[in-house]
Amino acid sequence: MKIILATQNQGKVRELRELLVDEEIEVLSLLDIPDWEDVEENGVTFAENAAIKAREAVRRTGLIALADDSGLEVDALDGAPGVYSARYAGEPKDDERNNDKLLHLLEMTPENKRTARFRCALVMATPYGEEYLTEGAVEGQILTQRRGSDGFGYDPLFYLPEFARTMAELTLTEKNTLSHRAQAFRKVIPILRTLARGTSSQGKI
């Protein structure tokens, strides 16, 4: 069965493919859709934005679509950047500028006040109008400088005290056991298995 993950972020695609390595499910991405145009993510929650993307991917492809909206919530910034995480430093979205802005805003914040969490909402939509929501979250704190090169987004600044490493210092296998996205992805896999047994639709691509 083919499904589409509504993202152009190949890091997210790799994470999901790793989790589905033993399944007969082929994961495509928005890079496989000709002339894809970004849909406006005007929701006020992660779940709303994920649903917007999933519905549009279903409409364009006829495939079961998964879309996540993930973000960083920093307690000292009253939950920001939140749903604006990807474009925190403005357009075009850029991980390095986002991290620079975060470091600047937290420059005077002491270590014990730099608590934060990654949160993910994942929506799976089917061509038959069904929708499923799963969520995940992981707690940590924001460092004063980047560490690690195996992640993306805010991973190099997000420190996990129980591992004494940042998210960007974890292996993909380790990340897939604990990340907010991995939690949400794992919760949707049993639903995908059921759908894979019950459908032969290959969509439009």
TrEMBL record:
Substrate binds at T7, Q8, N9, Q10, G11, K12, S70, F152, G153, Y154, D155, K175, H180, R181. It comes from Desulfosporosinus fructosivorans. The active site is at D69. Its cofactor is Mg(2+). One of its GO terms (biological process) is purine nucleoside triphosphate catabolic process. Mg(2+) binds at E40, D69. The lineage of its organism: Bacteria, Bacillati, Bacillota, Clostridia, Eubacteriales. Belongs to the HAM1 NTPase family. One of its GO terms (molecular function) is XTP diphosphatase activity. Pyrophosphatase that catalyzes the hydrolysis of nucleoside triphosphates to their monophosphate derivatives, with a high preference for the non-canonical purine nucleotides XTP (xanthosine triphosphate), dITP (deoxyinosine triphosphate) and ITP. Seems to function as a house-cleaning enzyme that removes non-canonical purine nucleotides from the nucleotide pool, thus preventing their incorporation into DNA/RNA and avoiding chromosomal lesions. It catalyses: XTP + H2O = XMP + diphosphate + H(+); dITP + H2O = dIMP + diphosphate + H(+); ITP + H2O = IMP + diphosphate + H(+). Its EC number is 3.6.1.66. InterPro entries: dITP/XTP_pyrophosphatase (IPR020922), ITPase-like_fam (IPR029001), RdgB/HAM1 (IPR002637). Binds 1 Mg(2+) ion per subunit. Homodimer. Pfam families: Ham1p_like. GO terms for cellular component: cytosol. The keyword Metal-binding applies. Keywords: Hydrolase, Magnesium, Metal-binding, Nucleotide metabolism, Nucleotide-binding. The keyword tRNA processing does not apply. It comes from the Bacteria. This is dITP/XTP pyrophosphatase. PANTHER family: INOSINE TRIPHOSPHATE PYROPHOSPHATASE (PTHR11067:SF9), INOSINE TRIPHOSPHATE PYROPHOSPHATASE/HAM1 PROTEIN (PTHR11067). Coiled coil: none annotated.
